[in-house]
Each structure stands twice: as C-alpha cells, then as structure tokens.
Amino acid sequence: MPIDDELLEILACPKCKGKLQLTVDESELRCGECRLSYRVDDGIPILLIDEATSYE
After folding, report:
1. 6-10, 35-39, 48-52 — which is least confidently predicted?
2. Where are the domains positioned within the chain?
3. pTM for this structure?
4. In 1-56, where do the E strands start and end?
5. Cβ-count burial of 19 within 10 angstroms (0-12 exposed, 13-18 middle, 19+ buried)?
6. Which pLDDT value is given to residue 4?
C-alpha cells in the first residue's frame, strides 16, 4: 500500500524535523539530515526514534 504524496509532503523526521524521503521500494522513509531510516509497515510510517535505524 503506497504512501499518499500529500502525506509525504507534511511528514518530518521526529528527531531533527528534517525532510523524509521514501525509498524506491517504499519500505522505508529516510532522513538525510540525521541519517536515520524509519520503516513503513503496510503503508503506515513508523516514526518512532527508538525503532529507527541508521544508514550510510
């Protein structure tokens, strides 16, 4: 289930408030500022800092 484009426009990283980018496979939202990745489960972004993972 894809994330709506309007929702993507208003979502922000809960840690630094930076812009989030959806990965090509739509499984994660990534923050370029603090380099954290938030998973997407069935089209629902899980924006919990404790569950975020860092990426390179």
Report:
1. 6-10
2. 5-54
3. 0.88
4. 20-22, 28-31, 36-41, 44-45, 53-54
5. middle
6. 84
